[in-house]
Amino acid sequence: MAAAEPLIEVKGLKVHFHTEDGVALAVDGVDFSIAPERTLGVVGESGCGKSVTARAIMGLIEPPGRIEQGEILLHGPDGIVDIAGLDPRGAEIRDIRGTEIAMIFQEPMTSLNPVFKIGDQIVEAILLHENLSRSQARERAIDLLAAVGIPMPRQRFDHFPHQLSGGMRQRAMIAMAMSCNPRLLIADEPTTALDVTIQAQVLDLMNALRRDFNTAILFITHDLGVIAGMADDVVVMYLGKIVESAPVREIFRHPKHPYTQGLMGSIPSLTDWGARRLTAIEGVVPSPFAHAQGCGFAPRCPHAMEVCRRRSPDLLKVGPGHTAACFLHQAAP
Asked: Please, where are the H alpha helices in the chain?
């Protein structure tokens, strides 16, 4: 069976921030693709480039940041568009945002305008991209609030963000993102601020939306437990690079990169509760200004060799659909 044509392809993406302190290599050569109706999970610690990658796909990189190199190819019925080459303030990228690609941010209180009613904010998003009257847009917004599980949607339409709970605000954000039925939904840590019960409800909702609207999802998180239940495929990012990529079952059963193994070891398990100590990854993610020679994870890696400090390993195949950037699995001189 032939693989589905990708909805979006990211090729050799580099995003640098030019500041008075130097150049920060926030994203340093990233490649991945997402097929329609698939969920790609992106995991890694804070400062590894996950959110910057997402904002680059949305065309939301602001100065002093800029896309230095690479392509972000959006496949559509009318051909392929390279988002990386578009004017970030131009009409073409504005048309893509919302209709083709939408984004759910981590904290809805900072993304929703506190002085406008929830429903009016969704209506404005609909009117921006759809040729509807305001009354038609209002009815669609109410239907969306109902679809994401908000009770009494007609009454909630007239509520302000502060009148809703955290879970309800996140649902309203999802309703706004889905208002124009985008083909790709980017979720940037959408459940971090929620308790586990509401988190489970939001994740179930996103899976249902993917199924009902045929939407692909790029799911960014540091929580591998969430990835296990959400993703079809996983990429692990460290210091602006992808260090491992595989289908979700493969990466949980056979993690190859020491960083991925460290992340896996830090997950508590109900089956061996109290039987083992959780793994702690020593040190912190280096500064993106450092431009260290060799493998960026070498200073924290328990298996680091001399070659790791001299050369940066390539991302190479280590199994079916499985790649890793580590000299432990490559023939290194």
From this structure: 50-57, 91-99, 108-111, 118-129, 134-147, 153-156, 166-177, 196-213, 224-230, 248-253, 258-265, 306-310
Task: Name beta bridge partners: 97.
Answer: 101
Q: Using an 8 Å Cβ cutoff, are 13 and 195 in contact?
A: no
pLDDT of residue 332: 47
Which uninterrupted H or E stretch holds 242? strand 241-247
Tokens of 188: 């940037």
Question: How far is the C-alpha of 91 from the C-alpha of 228, rounded, in Å?
Answer: 38
Alpha carbon 150 to its chain centroid, in Å, reads: 24
Q: Of 3.40.50.300, 2.40.420.20, 3.40.50.200, 2.40.50.180, which CATH number belongs to 36-59+91-96+187-329?
A: 3.40.50.300
- Please give the biggest Cα pair distance in the chain: 68
Residues 6+ positions from 51 with CB-CB distance below 8 Å: 188, 189, 220
State the Cα torsion 223-228-229-231 to the nearest 10°.
100
- HSE, CB side, 13 Å, CA atoms: give it for residue 138: 10
Q: Is 141 in contact with 119 (CB distance < 8 Å)?
A: yes
Identify the bridge partners of residue 309 per DSSP, sorted by sequence position: none
Residue pLDDT, tens place only, 204-261: 888 888 888 888 999 999 888 889 888 999 999 999 999 999 999 999 999 999 999 9
Q: Does residue 153 contact residue 146 with C-beta atoms inside 8 Å?
A: yes
